[in-house]
Write a structure and sequence with these properties.
The chain is an alpha/beta fold and 171 residues long. It has six helices and seven strands, in the order ααββαββαβααββ.
């Protein structure tokens, strides 16, 4: 909460905002941004955008009104509500136990593709320090949660964050 006023300016200065926008390349239709923070991805899309985060301090500084304050473990949307579900630098801040709930929820509300920009395990100690990630995501987690990974890469942001694309497995 105390860092909320500084978050977007710092992200622009360090180049994260530019890198973050790459997650939307090739996506169209409705977009759900899980763990959206201050919803900086909203400025990178021309389609229907909804951001979800549980921190009001971040949402209150977002440039859009298409926001929902909610826990990613129980997304308040109907099955298949979005064409694309994205997440950038959020899942690595969650524990693997939390992700066992979050990733299936993301699959449930997605009818098209998942696009995440996250540190992917394994990471060497230096890249893990740069990532500021408590728990890098393992690709096996996506599979166990109902996702079929279609592409991995490229790496960006000092080779620490990887773009991963997936589709929900048939139910």
């Amino acid at each position: 909460s105390a860092l909320a006023p500084l978050y977007n300016p710092l992200m622009r200065i360090c180049g994260w905002t530019r890198v973050q926008g790459s997650v939307l390349s090739g996506s169209d239709g409705s977009i759900l941004d899980v763990g959206c923070g201050q919803a900086s991805l909203a400025t990178h899309t021309s389609g229907a955008y909804v951001g979800v985060d549980y921190r009001m301090a971040m949402l209150s500084r977002a440039p859009t009104t298409s926001l929902v304050c909610a826990d990613a473990e129980a997304l308040p949307f109907r099955d298949g509500a979005f064409d694309t579900v994205v997440s950038t630098a959020f899942l690595g801040l969650c524990t693997p136990a939390q992700r066992t709930w979050i990733l299936p929820e993301m699959a449930r509300v997605c009818r098209g593709s998942l696009r995440i920009l996250e540190p992917i395990a394994p990471l060497d100690p230096i890249r893990r320090a740069v990532a500021l990630s408590r728990q890098p995501v393992q690709l096996e987690e996506l599979s166990r949660a109902g996702w079929l990974v279609s592409s991995v890469g490229p790496d960006s942001y000092a080779g620490v964050y990887t773009l991963v694309c997936a589709t929900p497995r048939e139910r």
